[in-house]
Design goal:
0% of the residues lie in helices and 62% in strands. It has no helices and eleven strands. A hairpin with a 6-residue loop joins β4 and β5. The mean pLDDT is 97.
Length: 120
């Protein structure tokens, strides 16, 4: 089993910054990609950003404001969010894709989410 845990959410004013962290743990053999999604009240979950060995991808909503980075040694991914807007308010979820266990089976795991609230 692979566990994913996010942290770093909170309440911030418009224009402020927050840094989210996500750690994947368990019998992980390799990680292909790590990404962030968000879900605002009454809306579907949407892609925010992802990072893999090949590339980094951002949704238009975060380009120029959000930066995703990864620390491979600790299976950790970060999302630095600057110039926060009211519409960034959502629960942010981490998604990790890779292989685990002695048989190197594929996995895709989600965290429980961390609340980000942008409000004046």
């Amino acid at each position: 089993q692979v566990q994913v845990a996010e942290s770093g959410g909170g309440l911030e004013q418009p224009g402020g910054s927050l840094r989210l962290s996500c750690v994947a743990s368990g019998n992980i053999v390799s990680i292909n990609s790590m990404g962030w999604y968000r879900q605002a009240p009454g809306k579907q979950r949407e892609f925010v950003a992802s990072i893999s060995n090949r590339n980094t991808v951002y949704a238009d909503s975060g380009k120029g404001r959000f930066t995703i980075s990864r620390h491979n040694a600790t299976n950790t991914v970060f999302l630095q969010m600057n110039a926060l807007k009211l519409e960034d308010t959502a629960v942010y979820y981490c998604n990790v894709i890779g292989r685990y266990g002695s048989a190197s089976l594929p996995f895709g795991s989600w965290g429980q989410g961390t609340q980000v609230t942008v409000s004046s």
